[in-house]
Structures are given as structure tokens and as C-alpha cells.
Amino acid sequence: MEGLLSLLLLAGLFYLMMRFGCGAHMVHGHHGGHAESESSAKDPVCAMPIETGKGYTKAYASKRYWFCSRSCLDKFEAEPQKYLAASAKEEMK
Ligand SMILES: [Zn+2]
Predict the structure, then answer these.
(1) Distance from Cα 93 to the centre of ligand 1, integer Å
(2) How many structural domains is the chain composed of?
(3) Which of 13, 77, 6, 14 is nearest to 45 (CA)?
């Protein structure tokens, strides 16, 4: 009788480990790595961090840029080379 009880206890423990142990690992894996860089961009005009999917966006020279406001987008459209050169310099630092 005692053997069966401890077996059940072990099975229960194993079940809990599978449920919470592996589940926790999967959650960590999902949030880790490059997720952050994919969901955020930098406004090349005012250097503000922008959440992609929000604000204004424009494709230029086969790349996509995000802007915090319409006025930043207008400034970029007026002189895209000026802002791209500035942001490229900053990345090299
Ligand atoms: Zn801006």
C-alpha cells in the first residue's frame, strides 16, 4: 500500500514539474533574444525610441523608419540624407 502511495506522489510531483517547469521555460524563451529590437525603432529625426506599429512610418532606401510625430516625418522627407547620415554616425560610436 505504501509503495503505491509514494508512486502516486511521485507522479503528482512529476506532473507539477512538467506543467510549471516546462511552461516557465517556454515563456522565457519567447521573451528572450531579439524580440526587443524587432518591436522598437528609433526616430532618426529626434532620436526618440518608437514602438513599431505606433506613430508614423516611412520606407526609404529599402529600409523602414519610424517617427514620433507628423512633424518629424515631414523633416525627414525634406532632408532624408541629413538624418540618415546623423543616425549612421551615432551607431558607429
Ligand atoms: Zn520625433
Answers:
(1) 21
(2) 1
(3) 77
Give me the residue label for grid cell 524563451: 29
- The pLDDT profile of the chain, 93 residues, written as one tens digit per residue, is 678 889 899 888 888 888 877 555 555 544 444 444 568 899 999 999 999 888 899 999 999 999 999 999 999 999 999 999 887 776 666
Residues with CB under 5 A from ligand 1 (ion): 43, 45-46, 48, 68, 72
Q: How far is the centre of ligand 1, averaged over its atoms, from the C-alpha of 74 (Å)?
A: 10
pTM tops 0.70, yes or no: no
Distance from C-alpha of 16 to C-alpha of 40, rounded to nearest angstrom: 36
